[in-house]
Amino acid sequence: MVFEISTGMIRGLGTVVVFVAFVGLTLWVFNSKRGPEFAEARLLPFADEPPSENNAKQESAARSTRP
Known about the structure:
Layout: H1 7-29, H2 35-42, H3 53-62
């Protein structure tokens, strides 16, 4: 018995692989154990960046001490 792989079989297997990956990713994202991790990551765009040495030197050089 010769098993011949057709184009339809390859596409079907690809669909199954993508579906399984989608379900796995969905379960991973909505896992209740990940809540605190994602809550912290959700606030990252609003985190203040620490001033670098270059910025601090430029700001102090640009400020004048004269009234």
